[in-house]
Fold this sequence. Notes:
Chain A is of the alpha+beta class. Chain A has 10 helices and 11 strands. Chain A folds into 2 domains: 19-211, no CATH class; 288-334, no CATH class. A 9-stranded mixed beta barrel of chain A has the order 1-2-3-4-5-6-9-10-11. Chain B is α/β, with parallel strands linked by helices. Among the domains of chain B are: 7-36; 48-221, Ribonuclease Z/Hydroxyacylglutathione hydrolase-like (Metallo-beta-lactamase, Chain A, 4-Layer Sandwich), CATH 3.60.15. Chain B is 35% helix and 18% strand. Classes of the chains: A alpha+beta, B alpha/beta.
Amino acid sequence: MLNRVGALALILVASATPAFAQMELSGAYTSRMYEDYIERGPGEFMGNFTGMPLTDDGRAKALLYTSNLPSTYERQCLAQGVGVFQYRPRGVQIVKELGPSGTDVIAWILAGDNLRGELRIWMDGRPHPSANAQHVEGGFTTGRWQGDILVAETTHVKASWIRRGVGIPASDESTMTTFISRHDDLLTIITVQRDPYYLSEPHVVSRVWQYDPRGNQFEDGICVTGNEIPSLEDTGQVPHYLPGKNPEENFMVRTFNLPKDAAMGHAYTLYPEYRKTIRNTYVPPAACGTRAPGYCCGWIERQGLPGGAPNLSCNDGGFGQLGPRGRTAAEGSNR
Amino acid sequence: MSGTSRYWSVVALATCALLMFIAESVHTQNAPWAWAPPIHTIARGKVEVVPVRGNVHMLVGAGGNITIHAGNDGVIAVDAGAADMTEQVWAAIQTISRRPLRYIINTSDREDYSGGNEALALKGSTIPFRPAEDARVSDGMRGIQKASIISYLTAFERMSAPTGKVAPRAEGAWPDNTYSTPQKKLPFNEESIVIMHVPSTTDGHSIVYFRTSDVISVGDLVDMTGYPRIDIQAGGTADTVLEGLNRLIELTVPNRKSEAGTLVIPGRGRLVDQPEVVYYQQMVAIVRDRVKDMIGRGMTLEQIKAARPSRDYDLRYGTNTGPWTTSMFIDAVYAGLAKNPGGELR
């Protein structure tokens, strides 16, 4: 059945788009934040590993994480993982590099920024480097066109975190396949991350980006380290939670009544069948606004800025009154 | 249908199609882990030359990694690899430079790093102090048809033995150029080379800083293929390894976004830079802290091992077979903490 549906979808897509062998991807794209607004805007809650297929070892490693760790001097400028752009609020700038002929595209480049290495997709058929070569922030990536979809394979990455700020680990042996397709002004990027140690299944993320000709996403800045926490200034400090001591391990349980196995990233909780198993037992929190205001009414809305998720019922628990441009709690709850 | 709606329909269908394609690819695998990327292991017996920067190259596959610096003065090798790999090592060096091998610097006395000392040294020649035909040259100074071997004093002592006793290694493998100061400086090939005493896995460990090239060869202070091989009998502990790694982190200067800058040639495995040294130090510190906490709670060594204090790193760095197992690593961490239970790193 899956094959039939997939084939039908592919036929529909093929019939709806021009049959170009290669698409023009160059340009600036801004992130569209809807269901992923919380993740990409204010950021996730500590202890929230929902949607992640973690191994037991990956879970153990994620739970040792404290945000003091990247505050240490030698970790402040460590780049985020190669696929983390899918989880960040920033847009993405795509440029192409032409070969000596001036016509052949030898690389597509998803430009980096001050905390992310560029993803340079080589299109000229060069092989991946030796396993003994240095690994870099953006990894080493080669690409090919499958119809109108650019498919890229990334190896040689550094150990990092898959999501921003919650400690979900990626090892230096992880790899990523990226699918990039463009439909007029909309860009779809799907990433499939695999990790032999920390993921029990491939981790698939799909994001949509909006062409933004006025956007300047090319912020390849320099990260400058500074003293954030005096006690962490000396080389050698490694803040971490001992096993069983992470105070956020049960945050999602006590805040949203989620089953712990869903919060802790067990792969079987990713699938629709899991919803059936908890349908009769799950009780939503009575007032998520007071327990966790950021969940219902996030960072952008709290500042009174446009761009908040549409049709999201917002109960900010009074936080809307904090900012000069913020809405009142009543206005927020009526949206 | 409006233009926007049509776009969204197309995007949704494309996304569905791609996700189904991906899901189908995954589900067709027989083994649940068949999709996982390959885990790279270093094949011993075939020596690979990895260019590092400028005149510096890394040889992988001869036991411990070997660093080669080549120039007009000749060739320097940091470590010599295992004893049975000398011919392959020499062939690899010849692809880099035909100049004479002048020095071998041992980062430690371990077999994988110094086993090839004798045979490799005989491939080279020491820079003569005076021409051999000079009448002032004594017989002892004529025997220079071998490269000079440099090490920290205690590494030499572990390879040799006092007169009248049986040495663990043949005399030809012994370092003939030792130091017992914090560092030894060596200008060579227009490179400023600093050999530093950095007690870590043993108390006789050295690292070699090629300052002009901004490359540091660190021996088994960093092992990208496994846990640090802490030799308790030779003065190593988890804390001395951490002191060594902290010193290495302070010596290295990353480029912007904490990448590149100073490059580090590890004792085993691939070329790294400061962020990966930081990650390795983090692993050692976390395992050390967990074992220390368990000791503080009155747990025995067997109970600690059963609790798997290194569980989230075992698949990446551990093994249950070979000369250095996960169990041996935990033994060493435990023994070091037992020797110095109150030890605190800065």
